[in-house]
């Protein structure tokens, strides 16, 4: 293990944790290029490598993705995997550049969930942030697709990060829990980040009312706080705004919403919110649209099954739950839904 923090330039004052250097680059991460749809397994492996782990995607992907073609490994799944390897993890939303600088300056790489546009179109992607340069206005990242030491301009990065409500993970040895909690401040308090995420998203809908991602994030934040009605309304606003072609260059025609067409491959808040406000037909339509392009997408099977069960379409719902479990045998929510529906049918 060869970890090293390279501090450059003069300190930048940050209100939460005093001064940090104006530029930092962490050394000691082992870069790995991803195989198809493996950015999650690779990125968590790169983060663990900073702390001495030798795991690669060839060990992590079979655990994280029993279905090799799985399009999505969630932040929660990455966090659970890191914990299974003996590490501690903090995952949160509504991160900001000051938080990244604070963590990196203290020696903690940060996983950021972002949007990504390549020759394959727009899609979700994880990046491991390993440095920053405040004077130059950019971050350094290890990217499983583009390579090590990729430079990301602050403004561009933040726009791509906003697509995922600025979700982040920091992985660290359990022995450093106290230090990390101090760096995170209020973010470690139960419910604080949920409220903060709602406030940030609400402010951005006011300052950027035609930004679909601000409205989408508001929906996600309200849903997490238990307001499904408000969440559904915010998602409706996001769906109705003009298509962002820069983020959606390969968009097929006739899609149901105006958010990037692969959005529901990675984020399922609209399906949950619409289900909770009894818009079951829309859940079926949106999930079916995803399955047209990604026929092994287990989360879409799950939510379509829930909606079909609510509509009284028992046999179709049972088939959906079984399909979700076929592609992810450990999908606890789908298994519980299947058992519940089977029990009702047996009465």
From TrEMBL:
Tagged with keyword Oxidoreductase: no
A Pfam family it matches: Peptidase_C39_2
Superkingdom: Bacteria
The keyword Endoplasmic reticulum belongs to this UniProt entry's keyword annotation: no
Domain Peptidase C39-like: 29-145
Start and stop residues of the TPR repeats: 298-331
Keywords for this protein: Signal, TPR repeat
InterPro entries per the UniProt record, alphabetical: Peptidase_C39-like (IPR039564), TPR-like_helical_dom_sf (IPR011990), TPR_rpt (IPR019734)
Signal peptide feature range: 1-19
Descriptive protein name: Peptidase C39-like domain-containing protein
Species in which this protein is naturally found: Meiothermus hypogaeus NBRC 106114
Classification lineage: Bacteria, Thermotogati, Deinococcota, Deinococci, Thermales
């Amino acid at each position: 293990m060869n970890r090293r923090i390279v501090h450059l330039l003069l300190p930048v004052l940050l209100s939460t944790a005093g001064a940090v250097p104006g530029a930092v680059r962490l050394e000691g991460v082992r870069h790995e290029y991803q195989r198809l749809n493996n950015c999650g397994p690779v990125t968590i492996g790169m983060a663990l490598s900073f702390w001495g782990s030798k795991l690669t995607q060839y060990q992590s992907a079979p655990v994280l993705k029993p279905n090799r073609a799985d399009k999505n490994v969630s932040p929660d799944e990455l966090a659970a995997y890191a914990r299974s390897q003996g590490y501690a993890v903090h995952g949160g939303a509504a991160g900001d550049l000051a938080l990244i600088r604070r963590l990196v300056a203290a020696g903690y790489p940060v996983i950021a969930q972002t949007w990504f546009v390549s020759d394959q179109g727009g899609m979700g992607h994880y990046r491991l942030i390993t440095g920053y340069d405040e004077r130059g206005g950019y971050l350094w990242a290890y990217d499983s697709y583009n390579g090590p030491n990729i430079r990301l301009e602050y403004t561009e990065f933040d726009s791509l990060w906003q697509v995922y409500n600025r979700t982040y993970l920091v992985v660290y040895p359990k022995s450093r829990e106290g230090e990390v909690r101090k760096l995170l401040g209020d973010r470690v308090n139960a419910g604080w980040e949920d409220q903060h995420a709602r406030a940030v998203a609400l402010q951005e809908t006011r300052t950027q009312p035609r930004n679909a991602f601000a409205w989408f994030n508001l929906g996600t934040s309200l849903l997490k706080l238990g307001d499904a009605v408000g969440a559904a309304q915010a998602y409706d606003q996001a769906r109705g705004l003009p298509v962002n072609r820069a983020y959606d260059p390969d968009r097929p025609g006739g899609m149901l919403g105006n958010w990037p067409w692969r959005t529901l491959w990675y984020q399922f808040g609209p399906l949950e919110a619409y289900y909770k406000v009894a818009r079951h037909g829309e859940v079926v339509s949106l999930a079916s649209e995803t399955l047209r392009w990604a026929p092994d997408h287990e989360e879409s099977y799950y939510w379509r099954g829930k909606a079909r069960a609510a509509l009284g379409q028992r046999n179709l719902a049972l088939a959906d739950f079984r399909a979700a479990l076929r592609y992810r045998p450990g999908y606890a929510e789908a298994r519980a839904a299947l058992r519940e529906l089977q029990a009702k049918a047996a009465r």
